[in-house]
């Protein structure tokens, strides 16, 4: 039985960023993730916006952590080798009522510590972003709003955590938690882990995990959001993030660029079942209407993907994060109710959790040999021709294109397969390399990816799954003996 | 980085590219043919059904057999064939930047023939709601899994779209002992060739449901468990109360093909929003002088033989361009079309001798005739007949018509009232 100081339940961006932060200390740490890969829940299904911090109600935990987290991203992106783009944003208003809301947001932002917010009007709006709907009259401009690929960030955190000794248990849903003399025994399908402290980062299932540990103290509901991704050649590119006037429970349908050069539109906000991450027709229609409110015209024929995710809402918590020691079980800590701006807040949450643990008297001694950087994987498509040529001459696998839409090479897929935590599903490879993320959506490369993965994993291609458990792509060989 | 000089660089080694390379060489040009896969043939290699070659070889061949004819012909030439080589960029001045296991190289060409083919439309593009589980794939990917990889991608299928690949796959799956629950088509008419409806569906007892689409994917434990199908109205919108759940483990999509013109766009080639292919003149030359296009990258064909014919024409023109031969000095005739004709290829004609115009109708038309006008006067009238979207039509304009055309011609299809004798 493995013995840990800290067991983190949930390998989303929260679990991964906290694991990395805790790995600065002399602690044995495990992360248990139910899915086959980190970043598989809410983390992979959102827009990846690093909000500046003008939206949360002042005085909330969200407000405190958001603007702090936003300002931590530029440095982290350098250290951990993930892409971060400070693209700026505008909340777009069309009339005097909207202007009143923008003024409230400006005031909130100032109280929350979001720097350099500016209320602008008229031509300045179109100077900053020519694609903006010509009917726009006012806007709240924030130069600090950033963009990330949220799963890229979580993966970077997880890989850096592994480099600093953290153990990841993937495909490991927690089925039981028992209180022991000096902590907890956590049951996973393949065995049991013992931990002195538990950190509950289980997303929409954090209430279920809390109950397993005997802490029936909050309930989570899921607020579902549809999103859509546009082809890189959809006619508009590198657009500044455009927000509508926010709604009480969400920021509304936002149009943004991604760090990879797509346009992304999201998200709707409708309460659904926790595990329902299906796309809805009404949601997709709302996204298209929402985008056409922010820009002149979205070319809906250039949609390449729709997807959806769930935000965790702790009932009766005013839509705030729920980050605190359990009220009922000593040694259990909740990082729950993480919804927008969860990605933006993640680094600040991790630092906050460390302070919380220290505040509870948990002994934490800093390591001297903490590795605080991670080398980014090769992204062939972004290299100069000379760099590409040199790379291929060193390793011919970089000369073999697998995904033609996103220009992903075999070398990059093999590199991803050798990273830790190791990706073992087609979707996990897609999140790391972008193979299958382009306009043909894997129509041309899926079979190539599967065969490379099978070779690297030493298994049959029929064993390679798309993402979720049971998501078999190929059932069997068609004819034996071939 | 290595640099090479060629008269003509052909991009893509499918039916269009192979025919183009052979023809350009025949016309005296030095030729490089660039193919990203390790084999020539393109999608033909996975089309193991017959029906190829009737026009070009006067016999019925399978896709691989049809491809092999051209592979053999190429083998007898000194065309430089670059396999497993991906083109990263084509510039306006016809530098072709490619990569393969040996590194990056640049082909400096005097003329370029674009022959990259097309890709299948995906679930994302048509925005089918529901679970994003395994078991939703394009017909072409399923064809690759079955015919090339020897994999079984599902047991019980629903096919959305009655495009030719979908129909052919319906038959193929049935032959392999898999169950095809039905083919569902959004439009009120089938999108594939008539012969395929007969040979692939009717002969196998597979139902075709017109004006019906898949409105939801229902997943269970990571894999498709069923799809919801719903009837649509004249505006193609789902009709409430007509939904039905069809259990299956795989949804196959055959919902259209899109020419792959990302490289062309990068070279500054102007695209036609209707075909998604390049705007070309009667030499199949694009808006960038010296860059020509043919095959499915220009517009989606229904027969490979037609691709071959088109490619030969493009290549002969490319070779002439490379040699510096003078173009026709006549003023251009713009080719316009009116609904129900969706598009024409080419959109400009320089020749006054003869010109072939290819077009498709957007919806089936019965008892109608082709009319060609120029500035209001009628130059040509056809006999009444029917036109369907799945069949590409060819209109050959003779010298007499071209001589009379006054700067433009317009193609129309007019209903013949009262059932005039054909």
UniProtKB/TrEMBL annotation, chain A:
Domain BFD-like [2Fe-2S]-binding, first and last residues per copy = 401-454
Reported EC number(s) for this entry are 1.1.3.15
Q: Which UniProt keywords apply?
A: Oxidoreductase
Q: What class of enzyme is it?
A: oxidoreductase
FAD dependent oxidoreductase domain location is 5-356
Q: Which SUPFAM superfamilies match?
A: FAD/NAD(P)-binding domain
A Pfam family:
DAO
- Highest taxon in the source lineage: Bacteria
Q: Per its record, how is this protein called by name?
A: L-2-hydroxyglutarate oxidase LhgO
| The organism of origin for this protein | Caproiciproducens galactitolivorans
> What is the organism lineage in this UniProt record?
Bacteria, Bacillati, Bacillota, Clostridia, Eubacteriales
Gene encoding the protein: lhgO_2
From TrEMBL, chain B:
- In this chain the FAD/NAD(P)-binding domain maps to 6-305
Enzyme Commission number, as recorded: 1.4.1.13
Q: Which residues cross the membrane?
A: none
Q: Which keywords has UniProt assigned to this entry? A: Oxidoreductase
Q: Which GO terms describe its molecular function?
A: glutamate synthase (NADPH) activity
Q: What class of enzyme is it?
A: oxidoreductase
Does the keyword Oxidoreductase belong to this entry?
Answer: yes
Pfam families cross-referenced by the UniProt entry: Pyr_redox_2
Q: Which PANTHER family match?
A: ANAEROBIC GLYCEROL-3-PHOSPHATE DEHYDROGENASE SUBUNIT B (PTHR42949)
Q: Would you tell me the protein name for this molecule?
A: Glutamate synthase [NADPH] small chain
Source organism phylogeny: Bacteria, Bacillati, Bacillota, Clostridia, Eubacteriales
